[in-house]
């Protein structure tokens, strides 16, 4: 039975990884899809009347309205990707896994069908389809993150791996672009994505729990297909012990979570830690929100304006724009390889600090918090390097920008999810994850006015905007510094550990 359970866990892990890799974060391959949309003449009526008679070198200047329309769609979709994480996180917490996944499948399938059947004449439907695609994708990610609970001490590694797969899924739009260039229509590609919903349904009922995967996982825990077989085998011999285990499987109780050796705070802190309101109003949460929002704004602005940026740097050469767009999308695929290193770093440091905790008197919750400091600082440093490279208007340098961008982004989202599991009670994870993403989404709306500012008053010169954003990025180093100082205080005075 133990071997069967381990096989089920591995099947759940691998199929979940494939789901995140192929579907969850495809929006962020937007630059590849914009290239196809422009080839299909989407929003071309917004270009100047004479643009089709002029050379490609003038297309960027004459098609400012077209670029702004695509930027607005991406701004709306990326906003919904984050903002809807809060209500979807609540749905996941309240109605459990099966309901959340069925909603995800409905949104995702509807979106792919809409994109598959629209044309240049009905391109405005992208304002509906792209947000629906992102809502479905983020629900796939949220329901899969709990799989980390099945792997105990490797939980942070699994969480960051899944977030890396979410980042890498942006390469799907590159595949669609390459297929399009080989003669496969946009409609055929998106109809294939729609048909994949059958596979999502199969995972939902066979390889995922109806409720939540608890942490720590209780003995004899089963779910999905194993749960059905187990019911038949155990028919007629349900004991009180089995009823207890079944009850634990259905409900994720705060008491069970807080009894975990790695997660439980001291008795003196339980009232404060249990409160969702106290978590939200804490300085720790506020600075984490600033950290996430500023770094994320850089990434969204870069992805949303990449086609326009490359067109400008390449002097309107479509072949160069296509080649650099492909290079960017290819680097995105490697996010799944970069993200686990962040989780491994956090897991290794956590185990190291746990060994030292006996000597220092540090609480398990403080140990978990200290292990996040290097991850937070490294993510800020990577973003700073990415921001500086992106601000230098040299086309060949963008290869370095692409590499730093994908590493920074994979560290950002994996580190964000892992930090929330380490720094706050597990029973609030869905709500806190959703809330921090929703609030950061409001900041991400700045990308469209920034793009408009660059295209308008700044006459396509982003220098002053880039300098301002680079300076703002320096603020993100405050978060790891404050967490580090908090850890130092707790080491010196263990009784103050929060």
UniProtKB/TrEMBL annotation:
Major location (coarse): membrane
GO molecular function terms listed in the Swiss-Prot or TrEMBL record: transmembrane transporter activity
Topology in membrane: Multi-pass membrane protein
Ranges of Basic and acidic residues composition bias in the record: 234-264
Family annotation (InterPro entries): MFS (IPR011701), MFS_trans_sf (IPR036259), SLC43A3 (IPR027197)
TM annotation in the entry: 12-37, 70-92, 99-119, 125-147, 159-180, 285-303, 323-345, 366-396, 402-425, 432-451, 463-484
Entry keyword set: Membrane, Transmembrane, Transmembrane helix
Gene name of the encoded protein: Slc43a3
Superkingdom of this protein's organism: Eukaryota
One GO term describing the cellular component: membrane
Protein location: Membrane
Pfam families associated with the record: MFS_1
Record's protein name: Solute carrier family 43 member 3 isoform X1
Classification lineage: Eukaryota, Metazoa, Chordata, Craniata, Vertebrata
Segments for region (Disordered): 234-271
Species annotation: Dipodomys ordii (Ord's kangaroo rat)
